[in-house]
Amino acid sequence: MAAPLWGRGLMAAPWTRGAFSWFLPCRRAIQTTAVCHKNRAARVRVGKGDKPVTYEQAHPPHYIAHRKGWLSLHTSNLDGEGGAAECTVEDVFIRKFIYGTFHGCLANEIVLKRRANVLVVCAVFLQRLPPYKFYFLVGYTETLLSFLYKCPVRLEVQTLPERVIYKYL
Amino acid sequence: ALSFRGQLYGAGTAGSCRGGGGGAVGKMAAWGGVSRLWRRCCQGPGTFPVNYSSRDMPKQYRFLLNKDLLWVQFSGLHTDLHRHKDNSLVSISDEPDTLYRKLSVLVKGHDKTVLDSYEYFAVLAAKELGISIEKVHEPPRKIERFTLLKSIHIFKKHRVQYEMRTHYRCLELKHLTGSTADVYLEYIQRNLPEGVAMEIKKTKLEKLPEHIQKPVWDKLLSVEETASTS
Lengths: 169, 230
Prior knowledge:
By secondary structure, chain A is an alpha/beta fold. Chain A has helices at residues 55-58, 84-101, 131-149, and strands spanning 52-53, 72-73, 111-115, 118-126, 153-160, 167-168. In chain A, the strands form two sheets. A four-stranded mixed β-sheet of chain A has the order 2-3-4-5, with helices on one face. In chain A, strands 1-6 form a two-stranded antiparallel sheet. The relative contact order of chain A is 0.14. By secondary structure, chain B is an alpha+beta fold. Chain B contains six helices and five strands, in the order αααβαβββαβα. Chain B: Keywords: Mitochondrion, Ribonucleoprotein, Ribosomal protein. Chain B: Residues 104-201 form the Small ribosomal subunit protein uS10 domain.
């Protein structure tokens, strides 16, 4: 982080802190101003130990490429390649579409892969619907997205009886 | 490495052959596999295999249903196998093939392990095709970093930094013909993993044009001689 953390550990004289703490006689510093110190992106906060969390949710984003992989694989973000904005917008739409179509059945985040012209959507579902409904929804999604994006869209589906819990937070 | 084979065309013809020789015939797995082979041999070009039940099969082939006589009858069916040999994808022409002195394949990706695996696959493919590899090296990675404001409104002192890492791998091949290069590149590109981009640089060898094949001063001397004599 660019800005130093003034909130803790700084045994400062009162005039180095934020707006009002110099009123206090003690040396302990309290955060009174900017509330942007802690990073909250893609993190599940630690609770009482009753919150089940998957492997994907348990790891914050600085573990990408170390303990986590990528959820959307395309070449737009590489050096010298373009089309990142279109790819991202398509990805967001596809994630929302599938979340809504298979409501309550998603076990984990969707993985999107782009290989040449083909868009492969890899999803892990929970067995909440009877199989014939799954087959229909898969066919419907594939056809609709293919017509929408003018490219072959393939849905690769795996089902699980229940979510795989990595730990409880 | 070969697990990255892209399935662009789906399952292909593997799913079109139905196993088992019809409902009435025996249930052994070995017979099922052999009957599939037999059916594929007998089909004409472009026709789909049809499930023959034992009643529909013509009388002269009914002896094939008997498992004991199977290996004897196979030798007589070679005539149909050769019909598939003239491949429409291969074309022969008289003009000379283009020659490449160097073919440079640069792959870029976010994940270094994926590039390692792809390099192993590409090198293996080149060795199998007999292409001479000049060198395989790893150009240094490039990191693009930018700093943004963390909050949507004010709080200028609190920012967040993102970076995008691009790793490279370069495979240089030498002394290729045009057709070899086309085949190799098509194979490599069909099996490119997702999230990996490729750049190709070809160095072509061209024949020297006719007007500069001989040095100019030879011609000038002959022109002067003719000018002086005339």
